[in-house]
Write a structure and sequence with these properties.
Layout (H helix, E strand, L loop, with lengths): L7 H5 L13 E4 L2 E5 L11 E5 L8 E5 L5 E5 L9 E4 L4 E4 L6 E3 L4 E3 L8 E7 L2 E8 L5
Antiparallel strand pairs: 1-2, 2-11, 3-4, 4-5, 5-10, 6-7, 7-8, 8-9, 10-11
């Protein structure tokens, strides 16, 4: 299984490969996260991904531009140890940044490693270059 090269220290401390995006590229109000695509070059191409974390958000969020061209958002928390996730471009896979290397497919289903529960996903809409992410659990339609 393809993964990003991470050294022992990076995996031990759960240091993700995916970059953290700061405000003003995004805003959050009333349960809705909005991300301006023109301010986030990491999502312009397929296989890109970003992390959004703030005390103002109810959860950490991972947003990806999937290999299939679809934008997706997940709670950025591995089902094994709660570590962060990375989108492994070209594989259709999300992988935990820790030693366990739990892996998930785009539907959030565990495909490898010690995780025993699926990822929580969020509804995403692209509204004229702004990704609108509803931070409520959704059922996968894949």
């Amino acid at each position: 299984m393809k993964s990003y090269k991470r050294n022992f220290i990076q995996r031990l401390f759960g240091m993700p490969f995916t970059g953290l995006i700061e405000e003003p590229a995004w805003t959050y109000a009333s349960g809705t996260l909005k991300v301006a695509l023109d301010r986030v070059p990491e999502l312009r191409e397929q296989s890109g991904g970003i992390r959004i974390e703030s005390e103002d958000l109810p959860v950490r969020v991972l947003i990806i531009h999937g290999d299939d061209g679809v934008y997706r958002a997940y709670e950025n928390r591995c089902g094994h140890g709660g570590r962060r996730l990375d989108h492994v471009g070209g594989t259709g896979t999300l992988m935990c940044c820790s030693m366990g290397k739990s892996a998930y497919d785009y539907s959030g289903t565990v495909t490898g490693g010690p995780a025993d529960k699926p990822l929580r996903s969020f509804q995403v809409e692209n509204e004229d270059g702004v990704l609108v992410v509803i931070l409520e659990e959704t059922e996968s339609s894949e």
